[in-house]
Design a protein that fits this description.
225 residues; alpha+beta; Arc Repressor Mutant, subunit A; 2 domains; 4-stranded antiparallel beta sheet; elongated
Length: 225
């Protein structure tokens, strides 16, 4: 837990008390980075308003070597702020004042997704998502034994989302990973391809259960629980 206000740290401790028997606290960005390196936490809750450095910088530093879910706490509500944090590697964003119950639920969801991703990749490289079987090595998707044919771009989008382990990826992150360029309109490019991809992998494309839209931000894949 990274926050320079003791009451906030106390509230987070209460919110996560059922999820862990140990919470490490830091009140500056530098100490947070040092503790994350030495303690290797399974979840990071990060406030943006730190006395020594921007929370965005802390998020970027942790994400360089850690895959632990990062939940940002902030009093800032703008969509642009949220997108910039997700681009920096955050997994979720909770605005202050926050509900203790909501924070606990979001933390459970992030830990569940992280655990599901580890279990999915632990066996033979084949991942089960709903009734889909995804063979990453063979670049093949099947539903009940029937192969689903994706275009190279569709596979790149799908595998990029899958590699994020349930995290939200912004339009720009997906665009950069798939097309590898900085020009063009990411939302416009992705909208068409996501629609076509959903027609192939979703049982009911109009109400997707696998490729989930985060309005105004991007997409994520809903991993099995």
């Amino acid at each position: 837990m990274v926050d320079d206000e003791p009451p906030i740290r106390h509230a987070v401790r209460d919110a996560l008390s059922e999820l862990t028997d140990r919470m490490i606290e830091a009140d500056t960005g530098c100490s947070a980075i040092d503790l994350c390196l030495s303690e290797r936490p399974t979840l990071v809750v990060l406030d943006l308003g730190l006395p020594d450095m921007e929370g965005l910088e802390v998020c970027q530093a942790i994400r360089r070597w850690s895959v632990a879910p990062i939940i940002v706490l902030s009093a800032r509500h703008s969509e642009a702020e949220k997108v910039s944090l997700l681009n920096a590697g955050a997994d979720d964003y909770v605005t202050k004042p926050f509900s203790v119950l909501e924070l606990g639920a979001r933390a459970r969801a992030q830990l569940r997704r992280a655990g599901a991703a580890q279990r999915a990749g632990a066996a033979d490289g084949t991942i089960a998502i709903g009734n889909l079987s995804v063979d990453m090595a063979a670049r093949r998707i099947e539903r009940e034994g029937v192969i689903i044919h994706l275009t190279p771009i569709e596979w790149q989008i799908f595998s990029t989302l899958l590699a994020a382990n349930g995290r939200i990826l912004t339009h720009q992150q997906i665009f950069d990973a798939v097309w590898g360029r900085q020009y063009g309109n990411p939302q416009q490019y992705l909208r068409v391809h996501i629609t076509n991809l959903r027609r192939k992998v979703e049982e009911t494309p109009a109400t997707p259960q696998i490729i989930i839209t985060e309005p105004g931000v991007g997409y994520r894949i809903e991993l099995p629980r």
